[in-house]
């Protein structure tokens, strides 16, 4: 069943993917029941949470480009939009391995869950290594299932050509962006430019701009519409990641599903941190040294309070809030000028505000 409104997209994606996981379990069970038991974790992970942001933006792009929701092509288009959630599953499962994270969405991360299962069953070898190895493969499998959905979609040849162009660009960008992220951390690149470049390719592209373009391509949109939606998506995507960076430091774990301050503990080179260090290096080098000493290691509640105070007092948090507002306003101004159905423009505007609004 297709979503009746933009608010219905998450539930509709969930229903569609539940069927996908049932079908795929039959395939993995043919290999081994033990393998199927482990691949069930992909479905558990996807169905256990998430806002379905990427399929929502893709469906918004479909409707903005004039895609009709009352014919057979719409069902195919929605399946391709839903496949983005499997790309997201791959990215998050791998990201948690890279960051050595213990929890995601308030539950153990996939590699930790697999390690725990290894211990419970008394299997041979190192449980943590087994968990990491299996999680990498499960992320790869989620990516391959996403590709299968696109490859098997009965699209018109001209539409398929455009869809494949966006899809392949998106996959390269998100994986190269993830690589850029870990290279930036390893090189200790604290620059604001580096932080924004990581955001652009690791998150903004596959979160907003490419999904919008994918949906528009599924609707048969021309080059100009696809290009404009990409520009809108770039701004909204960076704003979305900036909001996520703020939540990573100041957010409530009950809302984010991850320990508060996890980004600081992981040593993530976020724009928030980069702006703070730039300001403090200029105005208060001793405070800059204190902040650097609080990044990339376990933090006590007092440590976390100290880090937050430094980020706020130097004006970095306020600068990021201002930048979020600017990016959203500029993107929505472009949207207002787009020749698109008014209800579709209103839906994207509402989603943009909901995902980037201040929550504290």
TrEMBL record:
<keyword id="KW-0479">Metal-binding</keyword>
<comment type="similarity">
    <text>Belongs to the FPP/GGPP synthase family.</text>
</comment>
<dbReference type="InterPro" id="IPR033749">
    <property type="entry name" value="Polyprenyl_synt_CS"/>
</dbReference>
<keyword id="KW-0808">Transferase</keyword>
<comment type="pathway">
    <text>Isoprenoid biosynthesis.</text>
</comment>
<protein>
    <submittedName>
        <fullName>Geranylgeranyl diphosphate synthase, type I</fullName>
    </submittedName>
</protein>
<dbReference type="InterPro" id="IPR000092">
    <property type="entry name" value="Polyprenyl_synt"/>
</dbReference>
<dbReference type="Pfam" id="PF00348">
    <property type="entry name" value="polyprenyl_synt"/>
</dbReference>
<dbReference type="InterPro" id="IPR008949">
    <property type="entry name" value="Isoprenoid_synthase_dom_sf"/>
</dbReference>
<keyword id="KW-0460">Magnesium</keyword>
């Amino acid at each position: 069943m297709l979503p009746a409104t933009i608010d219905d997209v998450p539930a509709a994606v969930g229903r569609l993917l539940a069927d996908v996981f049932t079908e795929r379990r039959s395939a993995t069970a043919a290999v081994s029941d033990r393998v199927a038991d482990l691949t069930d974790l992909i479905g558990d992970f996807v169905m256990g949470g998430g806002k379905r942001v990427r399929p929502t933006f893709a469906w918004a792009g479909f409707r903005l480009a004039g895609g009709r929701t009352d014919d057979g092509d719409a069902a195919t288009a929605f399946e391709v939009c839903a496949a983005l959630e499997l790309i997201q599953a791959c990215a998050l499962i791998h990201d948690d391995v890279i960051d050595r994270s213990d929890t995601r969405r308030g539950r153990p991360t996939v590699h930790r869950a697999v390690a725990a299962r290894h211990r419970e069953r008394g299997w041979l070898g190192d449980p943590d290594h087994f968990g990491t190895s299996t999680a990498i493969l499960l992320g790869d499998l989620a990516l391959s299932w996403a590709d299968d959905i696109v490859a098997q979609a009965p699209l018109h040849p001209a539409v398929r050509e455009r869809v494949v162009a966006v899809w392949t660009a998106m996959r390269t960008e998100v994986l190269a962006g993830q690589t850029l992220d870990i290279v930036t951390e390893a090189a200790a690149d604290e620059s604001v430019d580096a932080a924004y470049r990581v955001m652009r390719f690791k998150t903004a592209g596959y979160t907003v701009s490419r999904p919008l373009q994918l949906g528009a391509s599924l609707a048969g949109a021309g080059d100009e519409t696809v290009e404009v939606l990409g520009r809108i998506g770039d701004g909204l995507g960076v704003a979305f990641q900036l909001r996520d960076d703020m939540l990573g430091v100041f957010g409530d774990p009950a809302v984010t599903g991850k320990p508060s301050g996890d980004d600081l503990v992981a040593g993530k080179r976020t724009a928030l941190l980069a702006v703070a260090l730039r300001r403090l290096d200029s105005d208060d080098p001793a405070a800059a040294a204190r902040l650097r000493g609080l990044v990339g290691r376990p933090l006590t509640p007092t440590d976390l309070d100290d880090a937050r105070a430094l980020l706020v007092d130097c004006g970095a948090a306020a600068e990021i809030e201002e930048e979020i507002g600017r990016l959203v306003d500029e993107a929505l101004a472009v949207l207002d000028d787009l020749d698109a159905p008014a209800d579709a423009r209103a839906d994207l505007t509402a989603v943009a505000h909901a995902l980037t609004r201040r929550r504290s």
